[in-house]
Write a structure and sequence with these properties.
The structure is a homodimer. Chain A contains 14 helices and 7 strands. Chain A is α/β, with parallel strands linked by helices. Chains A and B meet through helix 10, strand 3, strand 4, helix 11 and helix 12 of A and helix 10, strand 3, strand 4, helix 11 and helix 12 of B.
């Protein structure tokens, strides 16, 4: 684990090293070098000082310093389709071979056709039925190995980069900055808990027990060698989106976090729950408004709406009212990816 | 939290301090002074050395050192009735006042009668219906405060001690010894997750996020002041007993632990799951065979069976076959409680 993590970190930070000594000195004095100066960066630094300075009225003991991050669209690219769905699609041919009746299912038929336009029109329920049929039925350790093997070579089509390279460098710096100040950083994702756990440690420095996600039921039974394993059931146990996010936070963490970062309507309840707590709390939201360097989507500020990561106007209005910081990719992030 | 924890620790360790300098020196050289020399103590020390010595073939990196403990009957007294049930009973009069129709329910009527013999005959399903009606319907923070207030003054009848004083001193030493060797210690209990979280930190040094327990659903809704809260639903989400224990471990921890300690048939699957992993794994079971200092129960070795903490002969036989260590309270534990 540690070795792989170091390798990944080296990969992610490679760009910085290339800047030479001056760049390094900057990085040392500024923990958030990929953030432009402005209210978002200021808000982060002020929050961290307020909650970690023992003399501050908003001081939070180290054990209670919890920060939660949505993943898709908040820590890495979610457009044009969630990476986990791409993984599910990659398994469709093998699953249909084992269960030929699925070839007549509309969703499976569409995925097998390879017709991108038709695939783009599948409903979220159809996508979830594909996920349910392709990502369950095996034991949790086999599943983890399969995700690990896939994600080491699967590439996004726009950049021709590994999906794990499409993490936002400003957020990697923010995770490190929070951890350097005693915060424990959790992912709270609508994606599958076990999917994200398979790569969260090397990619984000976040261990499996700090990943809260959509949970499937598990069956305890003897494996191939007779030794007991946990088999992934298609039965949904917790849909970790919307109100499911605060629920998942309570079940796994059991404390109300001090800090939450999201990017869509699915993060609204997490932001509400976190910022309703006493003392200093900070809610932040990524606004995808940079079509050139990443994507621009969501009706807030007149951007087009899409199937993933909807950022409705009502969330924007609520953010203004509640004092949640809306982060513009275009103006607040100096650099988006480590490879830039 | 830290302050309270120090106070509790002082309370728990008070007995040792009274022994004076010689006792202290012993405690310093022996991390498990309340354990008698023998195979159980040896097994623990060997396991810890094997998994933490970097030169050992069974070395486990610090991040993967996870130890899981059942609570009732493993970390504290569960006899004659689980403490959480006593708490639920204490709330019955108030709940019946609010919902008078419950006075006609057989289980509630029996609890209200105060007839101990009749209460002792209630089935586990009846007990769970009382728990469901008395320990849900409030928000999680209110519930936590109520458990905290109750457990600070509620006393067991045999010893007239706080329930939190009825923790086993050898196990407190074992938790500390494991943590001193880089292990993270989790409770994995059939009891309510939020019940145990309310006192696990001061009593065991175990923070809320390291308590896995029986989970109820949660509803996210506005509280009395309009701010959002999580309300405890009567709907059972995970019964963290038997096969539910490995399931809860995977959902909350996401790693297969190296070490598990239980005391009853409800811990069997956790022990199976943990010890089926590769490398050095250790399973341990408390046998309650000391009627004088604590209790003697369970059919294994001819002791009487009881409603709580059943230790069937089949579990004993399986332990012998699998190499799980059966700990005799009578012969392996020099001291059971800190107040002795």
């Amino acid at each position: 684990m540690d070795l792989r993590r170091r390798e990944f970190t080296a990969l992610l930070l490679g760009g910085t090293a290339a800047l030479g000594l001056v760049g390094q000195a900057d990085a040392e004095s500024d923990p958030l070098p990929s953030w432009n100066a402005g209210p978002a960066k200021d808000g982060i630094v002020k929050f961290v000082h307020a909650t970690t300075d023992a003399a501050s009225p908003d001081f939070v003991p180290a054990a209670e310093r919890i920060a939660t991050f949505d993943q898709d669209g908040t820590l890495w690219v979610e457009h044009p389709i969630y990476t986990q769905i791409v993984f599910a699609f990659s398994r469709v041919p093998a699953v249909v071979k084992e269960r030929p009746e699925l070839a007549n299912d509309e969703a499976f038929k569409t995925v097998l056709s390879g017709d991108r336009e038709a695939i783009g029109k599948l409903s979220m329920d159809q996508l979830l039925s594909v996920v349910g049929a392709t990502l369950t039925g095996m034991d949790v350790e086999t599943y983890r190995n399969e995700v690990e093997a896939w994600i080491k070579q699967a590439r996004d089509q726009r950049w021709n980069r590994l999906y794990t390279e499409l993490v936002y460098q400003p957020q990697i710096e923010l995770l490190n900055y929070l951890r350097a100040n005693g915060y424990r950083t959790f992912i709270v994702t609508g994606g599958g808990q076990d999917f994200v756990r398979a790569y969260a440690e090397p990619v984000y420095g976040i261990p499996p027990e700090q990943v809260v996600g959509t949970m499937f039921g598990l069956s305890f039974k003897p494996g191939a060698d007779g030794k007991p394993v946990l088999v992934r059931d298609p039965k949904l146990l917790l849909n970790d989106d919307n109100a499911g996010k605060p629920e998942g936070i309570h079940l796994v963490i059991g404390r109300r976090p001090q800090f939450a970062f999201g990017n869509s309507g699915g993060d609204r309840e997490m932001l509400e729950y976190v910022t309703a707590g006493a003392g200093a709390r900070l809610g932040m939201i990524v606004l995808h408004d940079d079509a050139k360097r990443e994507y621009a989507y969501g009706p807030a500020q007149g951007l087009p709406d899409t199937k993933v990561g909807t950022f409705p106007q009502s969330l924007y209005d609520q953010a203004m009212k509640e004092g949640w910081i809306v982060v513009s990719m275009k103006t607040d992030w100096k650099r988006i990816f480590a490879f830039e």
